[in-house]
Amino acid sequence: MKILTLNFLTCARKACKATNAAFPLHPRDAELEIVETDLNPLFIRNILPRIEWDALREICVELGLPTLPDAAPEPAALFAEPIVPADTMQDADEGAEKQPTQLLQDLHRLLLETTIATGKLVCGNCGHEYAVKEGIANFLLPSHLV
């Protein structure tokens, strides 16, 4: 389960739907794994405005991951200006690819490569634990909790 996924999950119990404490689910006893993937700058740029930044920061603290800045970065801050040799006539905006910044690479590593292999996700409202095994969370509730 990718860290990015935690930013979109909430407790499945009906009693928790109306409370803010049910989001985000808090990882407990989590074993993290890095699954390398190709850098996808376009995806990171487009998903960034949809991320609940405070929840992501909280999850990083709970997992012992590097601390994120207080505010979400602007999508334009993810790319450095392209390096164009001074002796060329090419305009920097024409066909030159912008270089990814360290921030973009760090966000890619955190959101898309860092996964929870095993552990639990705990609701902050009701305390229900959802098991994560082999990177897959089990959100099926027992009949008495539905």
From TrEMBL:
Transmembrane annotation, as ranges: none
GO biological process, one term: rRNA (guanine-N7)-methylation
Coiled-coil intervals: none
InterPro entries with a match to the protein in the record: Trm112, Trm112-like
GO MF term set: protein heterodimerization activity
Protein family membership: Belongs to the TRM112 family.
Protein name in UniProt: Trm112p-domain-containing protein
